[in-house]
Amino acid sequence: MISIEQISKQYKGADKFSVSNLDLFIQEKEIFGLLGPNGAGKTTLISILCSLIKPTSGTFNINGLTYQKHKNQLKQLIGIVPQEYALYPTLTALENLKYFGSMYGLKGKSLTDKIHNTLEILGLSQFANKKIITFSGGMKRRVNLIASILHEPKVLFLDEPTVGVDVQSKNVIIEFLKDLNKKGTTIIYTSHHLNEAEAFCTRVAIIDHGKLIVKGKPKDLINANKDAHNLEDVFLSLTGKALRDHA
Predict the structure, then answer these.
(1) Fewer CB within 10 Å of terminal CB in the chain, N or C?
(2) pTM of the full predicted structure?
(3) Alpha carbon distance 149, 155 (integer Å)
(4) What architecture does CATH give domain 2-239?
(5) Chain segment 6-22, per-residue pLDDT in tens
(6) Strand boundaries in the chain, DSSP class E
(7) Quick check: 192 pLDDT over 90?
(8) Where are the domains of the chain?
(9) Most confident region among 27-36, 60-69, 167-176 by mean pLDDT
C-alpha cells in the first residue's frame, strides 16, 4: 500500500536531516506503528506521506499514486488525524463535520446520515449540536477522528490519536479503529504509548535521528531481545534512556 524509498528531509536552516535515507514498505490492511523518541522524525515522515511538505530527496507512493502525478487522487485516498485538534471551536460538532465532509465532495442526506451514524458509534450523538469549545479532550479527539474518515479513506494516518484522553475515550477510539481496519483501512499510527502500540499494531518501525532502527511484529521484536519483556524494553534498549527534550 505504501512504498517509501530513500526519503530524506532537511528543513531550511537546519544543520541535520529530520529524516535520512529512509526505506519502508507497508502492506495493505496493516496497522503499522511508527515509533520513536521526541524529534526522531515521525511527524516529519507522516507530513511527507500526507503531501503536507515535500521531501528533500527520495520518493514514495501510496497505492501506486505519487504526489507529483496524482495530487488530487492521493488526497482523496488518505485521511489524517493530526496531533493537534483540527476543529473550529465556535462551531458545533455537526457543523464541523458537515464542513469537513463537504471538502471531500460529500453532501446531502448521505453525508448527514453518515455523520449521525458515526457520532452514535463514538458516543457523541447527544452532543451533535453542542459547540466544540465546550467539549472535553476525549470528545474532541473523537470528533477529530470522524472528520478524517467521512470520505472512507483507504489509508488513515494517526498522529498521537489517544494523547491526553480519558480511559473510556481511549478504549472507544481504539475499538473504532480496529473495526475500520477489519473493513479494509490501512492504518499508520504514531504514539508514545508503547503498551498501546504493542497491543494495537500488527507491525511497528522504530526510528531515531531520522533513520530506521528496526521493524517487525511487536512479539518478534520482544523475543529477539533477551532482556525485553515488552515493547517499551525494546524501545529503550535501541534508543537509550537519555532525555529527548526537543523544541
Answers:
(1) C
(2) 0.91
(3) 9
(4) 3-Layer(aba) Sandwich (3.40)
(5) 999 999 999 999 999 99
(6) 2-9, 19-26, 31-35, 57-62, 78-81, 155-159, 186-190, 203-208, 211-216
(7) no
(8) 2-239
(9) 27-36
